[in-house]
Predict the 3D structure of the following.
Amino acid sequence: IVYSLSDKEWAKHVYRKALECCGDDDARKYVIETIKDVLEDDEWASELSSVFGIRFSDDDSDEESISFYAGRCGEIGCGELFGDRLEEFKKLFISRAIKDSDFIYMPSDMASDYYTGVFVSDEFLEDWGLQNAKIKESGRLGIPNDGQGYKPGIYLMYAILGDYSVDLETDGCDEIEFLGPKIDLANWEPELSGEYDELVVAHTVVLDGDEKELYEFMGDEDDMRTSVAIVWVNDDGDVEYLYTYSNGDEQYDPDVFSAAFPES
């Protein structure tokens, strides 16, 4: 049917439906290879390979790669505000000028810990066709927690997120391991991004014992978005939002500010 179609966009629609009807990766691989041959559209074929997590090997070499499209990627960080930075925050809060400050433009300068990578879980790995890959936690990223509750203080949490295609050159390795800290940001949900707690921000990938920075395999970022939250953890360990920013929209809570800084 596709051979007889003169409308390329309609042909793409038919191919997309065919991919959705495929029962396994071998069938999807056949459809994508046909797209390359019939439509001669390698770029779209590569995009579909990423979306459906299809692995192709190079017949002219021993190298293999796994491509997938990860919707939760980017930079995420957290840090306590104190001293001059805390005083600056208080002044900017009172003057309603946080939006145009380094708290938004340079949040990593305010964070004691931050990482760039892919946010992973066992469920995500399965969706990407990486059922045999493993996740290894290396510490945690978030508000200090001694097991009894969060440490009182003022904290900045931020995320600069995007949707990335990842082309992981595996070279036929048998073991793949994603390494990074577990996220614990008090159930913060950056707008349009969902909850991140319990996920691991994988900044390193280990291929048969060989560690590589994961960002080296990340490309084609889309829809970059910045979210910032500045919170007060009170003496009971409860987390209350002083200020939030998401893609240009900001909110101040003067009642929480008065409770956190009664002298102001």
